[in-house]
Structures are given as C-alpha cells and as structure tokens.
Amino acid sequence: MNNQLISKSEFKSKALEYFRQVEASGETVIVTDHGKPTLEVRPYRGRARPPLDILRGSVIRYEKPTDPVGENDWEAAQ
C-alpha cells in the first residue's frame, strides 16, 4: 500500500480533493506537520470484517515451518 505524504497547508487547501482520492482509490493519505506525520486519512471500514481480512498482511512469511527449532531459541524450564 502506498501512503501519500502531504503537508498540513496543502491538505487544508485541497481537503475535498484528497477525501475523494481516498474514497476512490482506497489509499491512505498521511498529513504532516513540519515533516512529521500527524494525521492519517483512510477509508472507513466497518467492524464486521472476517477475521482473516483483519490479519491479512500482518503475518511474516516463514520459509520452513516444519524445521526443528534450535536449542538456543528456547529457554529451558528448570
């Protein structure tokens, strides 16, 4: 997903244009103040979403899930 960074002053003068752009494309617009992100404008998504849609994109790919885990990766219970 590409996030578009725009300054507060630019957003103020073209807010409706950015709202329409977010609605049409589904992309996020991030508003900055002195170069620091302060606001995020994104499409509204209702809470009634399938659980897998909520998690989509949040899981890191694991190449070999069936390989044994090394001993150094676990703390032994004593």
Automatic annotation (TrEMBL):
It comes from the Bacteria. Keywords: Plasmid. SUPFAM superfamilies: YefM-like (SSF143120). Gene3D superfamilies: YefM-like domain. InterPro entries: YefM-like_sf. Belongs to the phD/YefM antitoxin family. This is Antitoxin. It comes from Sulfuricella denitrificans (strain DSM 22764 / NBRC 105220 / skB26).
